[in-house]
Amino acid sequence: MELDSSSAPSFSEIDELGLIRKVDIRLLPILFLIYVTAFLDRVNISNALTMGLQKDLHLTGSQPNIALTIFFVPYVLFEIPSNMLMKKLTPHVWLSTCTIVFGTAMVAQGFVKSFGGILASRFVLGLAESGIFPGSFYLISFWYKRDESQKRFTVFWCSVLIAGAFGGLLASAIANMDGIGGLRNWRWTFILEGLGTIIAGVVSFFLITDFPEKAQWLTEEERDFVKHRTGLDKTPHGPTSLKEIGCFFTDPKRIFGAFMYWGVVVPIYAYSYFAPTIIKTFGYSVVQTQLRSVVPFATALVLCLVVAFLSDWTQIRLPFVLFGIGLAIAGLAILMTVHHNPAVQFMALCLVAMGSFTSGIAIVCWYVMNLHGHLERSIGTAWMISFGNTGGILATFTFLAVDAPFYRKGYSICMSAICITAVSTIMYVCFIVKARRLTTIGSGMLYSL
């Protein structure tokens, strides 16, 4: 939300650029760190499956896929309640607690002995992680203006890409620890990454900032300035009722916005979980597979950063969403039709990763910054991400062992999902255009394209 400058109180002694740099340094690095640990802990099972987890735990049939899926059940169900709790308990308490809990679950996962054990640990992991992603976007959205948001959202989003790339490198190193202490290498993957997460959680309690109105590391004048420039001082800030939650879902654009995100989540998670499995079918060793899984994440990281600067500079999101969708469709089309050509197939994997991750963060920023005030953003960020992550459930069953090595079914599902994103984007644009026409000048309710 942005305000008419004519109504602005005087903040003549505030160094705006200096203050924003101060906010960047205090807010973004610690959120980036805890989500790196969260995403590592979520998807490192994909590396573990290539190291012998399936054989050691005697998993058969679709049991590995069920182990991936169980994470999303609490993750989806508890994201809206989690945002409500974060608002009540404050971000530094809630987010750090969640981080310590899912780190503990990850360490426990390193000692499981059965299918039931892996299910239990991943259920707790999903429950604890449900607060991190939507809560972080909810918090970030209140610290920046609309034309500053894409770069900051993307910096946080890139934690996913760094985690994906670093996870491959870390897994290739831990693969050499097989037998140390009498433990298999895949167990060490869970234990070491879980311990790192617990440390990050303890540190985050002291470093995570709260919402601007409670940020004690700012002066009172600086807090007032941040609230004014982002419009927080013009929005209600109180308890959220069930009636208000119900009213939120009566607006069609909020529904289509979630479907936009859902469609890109399917290929994002499909790649994140199954890239090592897919790349291994190209004939590489375990270590070579882990190292090559880094490259698509790295290329996606570069493109996301470039798009973030261009999107904030132009102050539009739609063309960049469509560009990412186009890249993902092109990559999937190649993977569906080209076989026995590892170089071309690997290039296509890069296109899918670049397109999915780039359009994904553009969609998140676009949707969240078109929400107004604590009420809409607390519900809306959790709704978009919780509904979108039901696509993660579908993604865990896209690439089955029986479909190797061509995975026609998996690529077809991802193609269908990304097409749903394309259609939902068109519908979202239609409702945003309608909202822009109905919005009165000076109301502060701005909607961007």
UniProtKB/TrEMBL annotation:
Localization, per the record, is: Membrane
List, alphabetically, the GO terms of the cellular component aspect: plasma membrane
Q: Which residues form a coiled coil?
A: none
> Which segments cross the bilayer?
65-81, 93-111, 123-143, 155-174, 186-208, 255-274, 294-311, 318-338, 344-369, 381-404, 410-433
Entry GO MF terms: transmembrane transporter activity
Q: Where is the Major facilitator superfamily (MFS) profile domain?
A: 27-437
Q: Which UniProt keywords apply?
A: Membrane, Transmembrane, Transmembrane helix, Transport
Q: How does it sit in the membrane?
A: Multi-pass membrane protein
The main location is: membrane
- Name under which the protein is recorded: Putative allantoate permease
Source species of the chain: Melanomma pulvis-pyrius CBS 109.77
